[in-house]
Amino acid sequence: MPRSKRSKVVSLTKTDKKPGRENNERLYGKIRESIDEHQTVFVFSVDNMRNTHLKEVRTDFNDSRLFFGKTKVMAKALGTSAADEYRPNLSSLSKYLTGNVGLLITSRPAEEVLSYFESFSKQDYARMNAVPPITFTVPAGIVYSTGGNVAQEEDVPMAHSLETAVRGLGMPTRLVNGKVWLDQEFVVCREGKKLDPKQATLLKMFGVATAEFVVRPSAYWTSATMEVTEVDAMEE
Predict the structure, then answer these.
(1) Packing angle of the helix pair 71-78, 19-37 (nearest 10 deg)
(2) Which backbone phi and psi does 183 adopt, to 5 degrees?
(3) 128 with 202: CB under 8 angstroms?
């Protein structure tokens, strides 16, 4: 007797679109909608990304659209060749979509945008693997809260309760009469050498901000000329 064939139950989750694909389609659509609404598309990169500072940029450009996402999706939205580009010559902008980059789509004059980013920078604390632009050394003797960054008469000794913490981060400290003490100077970091997690933490404890959040426009396309302008070439 032939065996009966039972109907297979297929989970709806298998037929639904994957969240990642939905997000990509949403990003693709929003980029093209923004191109319809505005005149200029910038590609920009960011040094020392910090969401707090990027939020300030978004606020300052609340009449524009700023996108971060998969570079392949952003390139697809612009077009990667003359055959599929969304606007004439817009595909020429796609080659700049490599690395940690985003899109700013705006109706503001290009000169205004470039001037804004040229003057916009924010100091912040460096993270692991960042390359510090300075060598920072804490002098021997009583350890002060800024590690010698300011004159002693304008500083205060480090709280004794932090001695265990800084010693755990590699500083050979000890307590002397209730004060955090170094028998010899201690180099926290050296210029040009990547920071490890302990060094990054020490710099933050001493209030030393060596990272700079900067937005660097690399190129832009404008509907006025249908041409792509490379920003570095303008500055030469």
Answers:
(1) 40
(2) -75, -30
(3) no
CATH topology for 24-123+212-230 is Alpha-Beta Plaits (3.30.70)
CA distance 205 to 202: 5
pLDDT, the chain, mean: 90
> Residue 11's pLDDT is what?
40
Tens of pLDDT, residue by residue over 182-226, are 999 999 999 999 999 999 999 999 999 999 999 999 999 999 999
Global pTM?
A: 0.77
**Fold identical between 24-123+212-230 and 136-189?**
no
Q: Say which CATH class 136-189 falls into.
A: alpha beta
Domain boundaries, the chain: 24-123+212-230, 136-189
Is residue 128 within 8 Å of 197, Cβ to Cβ?
A: yes
Quick one: tokens of 226?
């249908």
**Category of 113 on φ-ψ map: left (φ > 0), alpha (ψ -120 to 50) or beta:** alpha
For residue 87, the 8-state DSSP code is S
